[in-house]
Write a structure and sequence with these properties.
It is a single chain. The chain is mainly alpha-helical and 171 residues long. It is built from eight helices and no strands. The radius of gyration is 20 Å and the shape is globular. The mean pLDDT is 87.
């Protein structure tokens, strides 16, 4: 995936032209235009990867974040008494990553739990234990950071309504 991203970033024109042709061949015009517009935005966002220093920094930081998050899954497996090996934590991290990439509810509630249930089933963990683990993990990681975010907003004297209004102006 990383190699494809690098290829697209360094030579975006042929890839975007190919996507545009395929999208217009398979999709209605308006949807094809939307898909093309989103792809162009993604490519523009990946421009930072052209710099070797930034590229190495992004890869290193991503690897560190994924390993730390995987370690937190593994520690929580032990806390719940789940016999899942360390590589199961990395598998869970990957599957949740794909799951939450789909359009979802706020906080990925439901998608996170479903992805966790499906992944833990691979290791023979029953649905009830898997969902209990998922809900416990999700609550203990989502609620504190959300509360800290709300606290930070209040310290900056910002309100959620102002953030929504700013987002509406950007669209």
């Amino acid at each position: 995936m990383l190699v494809i991203a690098l290829l697209v970033v360094h030579r975006p024109a042929p890839w975007l032209a190919l996507l545009r042709r395929v999208a217009h061949a398979l999709l209605p015009g308006r949807l094809a235009d939307r898909v093309t517009h989103v792809a162009e935005g993604l490519v523009a966002g990946l421009e930072v990867l052209k710099s070797p220093g930034r590229f190495v920094g992004v890869v290193a930081w991503s690897l560190l974040l994924w390993l730390v998050n995987g370690a937190s899954f593994a520690i929580c497996f032990q806390a719940f008494g789940l016999p899942v090996p360390a590589e199961g934590a990395l598998l869970l991290q990957g599957i949740i990553g794909f799951g939450v990439a789909l359009p979802s509810s706020p906080g990925f509630v439901g998608v996170f739990e479903a992805a966790t249930r499906a992944t833990l089933a691979v290791y023979g963990i029953g649905a009830t234990r898997a969902v209990s683990y998922a809900v416990g993990y999700h609550l203990t990681t989502f609620v504190p950071i959300t509360l800290l975010g709300l606290y930070s907003l209040s310290r900056m004297r910002l309100h959620l309504a102002e953030l929504r209004a700013a987002a509406d102006v950007e669209d």
